[in-house]
User: Fold these one by one.
Assistant:
Number 1:
Amino acid sequence: MITKLPKWILWGGAVLAFSAGSVNSIALLGFTNLSVSHVTGNVSLFSAAIAHFDGRSVLLIGASLLAFLAGSILSGFIIGQNSLKLGRRYGSALYLEATLLMLSYWLYQQHDYLGQLAAAMACGLQNAMVATYSGAVIRTTHLTGLTSDMGAAIGNWMAGRSISKPTLGFQAIIWYCFCGGGVVGAFLYAKINYAAFIVPIIIVLAAAFIYNKVSDRLPERRRPTL
């Protein structure tokens, strides 16, 4: 349960959720019409493709699912552990995510399905990178579990039970930022097509740069290897 939320987690979670919402909207509106930021819906599509013996869709959707998993594996390899703590190699992971998004942008422009895979891998990397803080599960690329947690917390509050207001507030910020990112991504895609990827790329690069600057100010014994 979160009792006090460090600003770096608050701002980091917010901007990364905004970025993921934007990327997902662009992917959904693009030529693949397939999500890159979450898995549940794609698994349902994958199951339907199997049921209808649609081999092409099975391969394409399956590859996207595996790409998301691969991104999560990369996060575990680079960062390790599963709880947020200033001083870990988040800067390296963020720069890698930005690289994947730049690659995705270029590939989507060529109408190459590998752009879908690069974007899904970037989202898997981000989602696994932001895992937990003080026992609260933090997800920045999809809202299903977060919405359920918010609903349960509100229900407990209505029943007169104590809840963690900082946790609920943070979850609400993530929800609105993901939604806002989706609005911006959809709007920009309608205006400038796949160049809309420039916004999430800049956001992730800025987050990596700022994180590294903050980490450099830590005492030497706490400074991470970036």
Number 2:
Amino acid sequence: MVPTSPIIGTMLHAIGGVSASSCYVPFQKTKNWSWGTFWLVQGLFAWILMPILIGVITVPDFFFILKHAPSKPIWAAFLLGAAYGFGSMSFGVSIQYIGYSLTYTLAIGISAIVGTILPLMIFGGLVEYFTAPGGMVVLVGMIISILGVAGCGWAGFRREHEMTMAQGGLKRSNMLIGLILTIIAGVLSGVFNISLEFGQPIADMAAKHGAGHFEGNAKLIVSTAGCWVVNVIWFVVLGVRKKTLKEFTTKSGLKSSVITKNILWSALAGSLWFLQFFFYGLGHVNMGKFQFASWVLHMSMLIFFSYIIGVIMKEWKNVNRNTYILLVIALLVLVSSFCVIAYGSMQG
């Protein structure tokens, strides 16, 4: 059995959180590209090219494993990954209605709960895990984590409210639509973890072939491929309707050098998105007996570092002092939850 360390696992989840939190920053560097054009390129790298490249590098007999893996986990992981693809689209649209901070926090918060609890209900172990040594400590850590996420969400809501009020307010209908889309995005994001759990037999095959801690890279491509198929169909159709696909060529009026830079920035965004789950897989293996806590830990890391990056980029510069204090307290609560979950995992 490959040795594990919850401390190292928590640190790896943190690296994945930094990667995920910064993956949309490169979009700001693209020039005269629509969101759909950017999304097609980043999706190709995030969900196809990078998973294949890293899979080939880290998993012995990568293609052999995929070819001979049982069909049931392959199709289950693929279809659930496709469901996550719809969630990612809902996420993008909801930002336009209620803003990034509120959308991100609510979606990730819902995902943390759904992606942690449902796999335990589907595959069993809900009671056994929490009654085992260290189980109650992990449960307390998860509850603290959710409280921290809620605090960040409330701070994000206050920030968005202050900004929208300064711009004349937000329509109630827009808020309702945005919240509905955010709930859909959060639930389907949690489904991605269920997709990874259904793909575990593929990872087990990789482990037998000597993949070690990199076993998760064998199953990741199956889940992400489902996500990619849904997104590429949607955004290609959208690109045809809105005539934005020409942004890939000089017919759009863009210089070839600008297009090349846009592609590189989009590729970086997709690579950063993939790296979050590369490190998630490594962290997941290292959490030992309490691997199920990986999802809520990972989602909490996303929230934590996304707000840290927001502070660094001075997105919170002009908020009310009480709102800023609330954010700081919520971030400290999240940090304490990381420590508690790691400690409980070590006890187990």
Number 3:
Amino acid sequence: MSDTDALAERVRSRLITLGHPPTPAAVATAVRAEYGSPIGDRTLFTLTARLHAELVGAGPLTALLAEPNVTDVLVNGPQEVWVDRGAGLQRVQCDLGDDTAVRRLAQRLAAACGRRLDDASPFCDAKLPDGTRIHAALPPVAASTVHLSLRTFRPQGFTVDDLVAAGTLTPESAAIARAVLAARLAFLVSGGTGSGKTTLLSALLGEVRGDERLVIVEDAAELRPVHPHVVSLEARPANAEGAGEIPVRTLVREALRMRPDRIVLGECRGAEIVELLAALNTGHDGGAGTLHANTPDAVPTRIEALGLLGGLSRDAVHAQLADAVHVVFHVVRRARPVLRVVTEIGVFRVGPDGRVRVLPAWRHDGGEVPGQAALRVLLGVVGGRR
């Protein structure tokens, strides 16, 4: 262990003993007390900055996470670090020391989230105080070395016009999206992991009228719509003792009592879909959410599977879905060049067998759109009623 590492351990122990949070001022005071000899201002400033990053930040990864274009930082061991700057993964030079140093880094990040990471609990999925999402896996869950996955949090939100400029939306699909919002149709944004579902949903919510109250429920707060009246509710995992959990499903029920004009579920991923469908069927129109699905056609099937987790039968899921959700925006991440594109807008329709299906109402490639007339009816009838 180097002298700096030893100093970091003494500073950490001192802060824990005194019960002081690792603020820059507290770290500077601890460094001065633990340094062992008189220390100059320049040395104190340098050590404080470095140790503060070690104690509460991401250590050597801090500079990468601070880059404005970086969305993900992935660590596959002490000498293998990858970043995504929006153009796919690229390997970068970043020396993290050895396996022991990477393990300590992962444990520090987990501790900053209030989570445990050790041999008894070898993986962690949490959020740092600055909003960065972290997933860590220790051996033997990780086969050979510690693996870290960090997804950065960017507080600035995109607008619909920004997404048109970026190519995610076309002027035509943007106009449809605005009409859906104005008509207060309930909608979902579907797509694969990393396709830009949250970014698109956040931009669309920014188009909602300013006098409407948005109540957003998320497993981890990521939606930041540019809107004057947003209430954000975030689920809480159990602590190290297994107590204190507040699941998303509970928060959806609580949201109903908060006088929402629109209820938004950041990601439909479990039994909470039951509460969302119930809300959208009892006067809470205009709601929204995201859903993992490979194609628009797969969306009803995914909702059916989640509804079964919540205790609904297959028939009950489709009966609820038929009146709850009207439109789906499907977004795809294309590899070269890297671009997130809304490829299809579909409408939910009930088939002869009573099962809900998605009919394409608009396609980026100009393909056949048998649901176009249905979308016009929805926009006209619901919009006229409003």
